Amino acid sequence: MKNILLVFLGGGIGSGLRYIVSKYLNQIENSIALGTFTVNILGSLIIGIIMGFVFKNDSPSSELSLLIATGFCGGFTTFSAFALENYQFLKTGDVTNFFLYTIGSLLLSICAIFLGIWLVKSS
């Protein structure tokens, strides 16, 4: 139960912060969603730092990992988890799954957006 509460607390804080950052930075005229881009990169950096500490100390189930990596970064951006998973593929030399997962995730996610919009528009 304690672990669930840690993830819940971190996720709530991360989601709230993502909303604030995106609200302000996405208003800037730019060709990309600067707020979303920023939280994706920051979230990846944060999860990298936290997991670096976890890996260094050999404690994959630490409370810090649950609060910040799983909870906060999960709420702040799911991109950080995606980046970490790709790092793990590359670290183990699994280049095939790295490319399949990366390209598949990007292409299928974009296709899913189109499909979802089409389904709503056509109903």
Describe the structure.
Helix content is 83%, strand content 0%. The chain has helices at residues 2-25, 34-56, 63-76, 79-91, 95-122. Helix 2 (34-56) runs antiparallel to helix 3 and helix 2 crosses helix 4 (79-91). The longest helix is centred in the last third of the chain and has 28 residues, at 95-122. The radius of gyration is 16 Å and the shape is globular.
- Name the poorly predicted regions: none
Radius of gyration: 16 Å
- Beta-strand share of residues: under 5%
Structural class: mainly alpha
Biggest pleated sheet: none
Mean pLDDT: 87
Helical stretch tally: 5
- Helix and strand pattern: HHHHH
Shape: globular
Quaternary: single chain
Strand elements, count: 0
Helix content: over 70%
What's the layout of helices and strands?
Elements: H1 2-25, H2 34-56, H3 63-76, H4 79-91, H5 95-122
